[in-house]
Write a structure and sequence with these properties.
Blueprint (H helix, E strand, L loop, with lengths): L1 E4 L5 H12 L3 E4 L2 E4 L4 E6 L5 E9 L3 E9 L6 H15 L4 E7 L3 H9 L3 E6 L2 H8 L16 E7 L5
Parallel strand pairs: 6-7
Antiparallel strand pairs: 1-4, 2-3, 4-5, 5-6, 7-9, 8-9
Length: 162
């Protein structure tokens, strides 16, 4: 598995990835609006240079925030490897924790993160409704038929700094 820093991937390829998988190169979550080309991150590339997994993050004063995580080949360890890489980066940058936000309908993400030591620490009721005012392409209902309306903040405390 080849993991590279996102800055080594052409901006057009990164923007196309976000447009295809997030509906836009802009990330809109409760903590802010982020532009994909400005975010730090890592990607897993296949032998043809295509992105098969991608994680982005923002460093804050005391914590790291994961703003997106995608694995196109599920159950291959891509998401786990990318998340570990960001956790290591955060430790090296002396951050105390990693946080991320997902939506109430994203059951796969909730399972994935909780298995890796993340805890739900806050719920933002109707946060997606507010985001939809700025980004109308956000769907109303998930593929499983769950109304998409709340954001959940998850956190993992990072114990050791290496």
């Amino acid at each position: 598995m080849k993991i590279v820093e996102s800055c080594r991937i052409p901006a057009a390829q990164r923007n196309d990835f976000f447009a295809e998988h997030w509906g836009s190169p802009k990330m809109l979550i409760s903590t802010g609006i982020y532009s994909s080309e400005a975010l730090d991150g890592y990607a897993v590339l296949n032998d043809h240079g295509e992105i098969r997994g991608y994680i982005t993050y923002v460093m804050h004063d005391d914590r790291c925030e994961v703003t997106s995580l995608d694995s196109l080949d599920e159950n291959q360890g891509i998401g786990s490897a990318l998340l570990r890489r960001v956790e290591d980066t955060a430790r090296q940058a002396y951050r105390n924790s990693i946080q991320l936000i997902t939506t109430n309908d994203n059951l796969r993400a909730l399972l994935f993160y909780q298995k890796r030591g993340y805890q739900i620490i806050r719920i933002y009721p109707d946060a997606v409704e507010k985001a939809r005012a700025l980004k109308p392409s956000i769907p109303l209902v998930s593929d499983q038929g769950i109304p998409i309306r709340d954001e959940l903040l998850l956190q993992k405390i990072l114990i050791s700094h290496t």
